Amino acid sequence: MDAEAICEAVQRPNMRFVGIKSVAQQEILALHRVRSLAVKNRTALVNQIRGLLAEYGIVFPKSIKQARRAIVLILSDESSEMSANFRVILEDERDELAHLDERIGKYEREIEALAKAEPQCRLLMTIPGVGPITATALLASVGDVRAFKNGRELSAWIGLVPNQHSTGGKAWLTGISKRGNGYLRTLLIHGARAVLRVAEKKPDRRSRWVVSVSERRGANKAVVALANRMARSAWAMLVKQEAYQVRATV
Are residues 109 and 34 part of one domain? Predict the structure, then answer.
């Protein structure tokens, strides 16, 4: 069966083969995986703390930054009706939160150092919305970007192009395919969302464009459309070895 599949794949001109990752690429992706798991564990911990405190009628914030301050204030409140045993549990949760913060910070500092040392990452970070985490993940996941014919192929590989359906001679587009590298897709969408938040204050062409899309089709579709453009820009920049150029509105 394996031999048959290989023969069939070779005969398909559009078949995409997965490149073998270097040791350096594997190490970078390993760093991303452990960071991602630590972030998920931290989110789960904050949700757990919120549920525990809800039993005492205490509202706990959702954001990590506010949660750090809130747990310190709650533990310092001597007038609280919390039992001594529950207070010990909450102190353990506080310590675990601090430990996860420390681990995540350590991983992110390592990723930032890798990004600063790699010229290709520095090139990618000239794209608005692309920081050290996205740049290193993209470079380590893709490897040689010339394996893709164009930026649209890279965007499709990440899962940022719309699904196309047709029947009765009519074609229409639905939501994004969500195929391929989900981690890269998430990073690019987060970056695009950050760009959209400040786009109204900026006069460049891309900011004006994404604001226009947001007004016409909604923020979520604008974010996905921008993430798609970011992926295409990344391909073009790596192929041409040119930094991102901010274009003023005409």
Answer: yes
Does residue 170 surpass a pLDDT of 60? no
pLDDT digits (tens, 9 = 90+) for 185-206: 999 999 999 999 999 888 889 9
4 confidence band (pLDDT: 50, 70, 90) = low
Element holding 101 (H helix, E strand): helix 84-117
Assess whether 29 and 112 both reside in one domain. yes
Q: What is the DSSP string of 121-182?
A: HHHHTTSTT--HHHHHHHHHHH-SGGGSSSHHHHHHHHT-SEEEEEETTEEEEEEE---S-H
Q: Of 102, 117, 132, which closes a domain?
A: 117
Q: What are the residues whose beta carbons fall under 8 Å from the beta carbon of 81, sequence distance 6 or more?
A: 56
Domain that holds residue 62: 15-117
Nearest to 141 by CA among 229, 243, 210, 235: 235
- Ramachandran assignment for 178, one of left (phi > 0), alpha (psi -120 to 50 degrees), beta (any other): left
Which tens digit of pLDDT belongs to each residue from 6-50?
554 444 444 455 567 889 999 999 999 999 999 999 999 999 999
Read off the tokens for 88. 């010990």
Rounded to whole angstroms, the Cα distance separating 31 from 27 reads: 6
Beta bridge partners of 170: 167
Highest mean pLDDT among 7-16, 79-88, 232-241: 232-241
Residue environment code for 184-219, b if the CB has 16+ CB neighbours within 10 A, otherwise e: bbbbbbebbbebbeebeebeeebbbbbbebbeeeee
| Shared domain check, 169 and 246 | yes
Considering the domain boundaries, does residue 69 fall inside one? Answer: yes
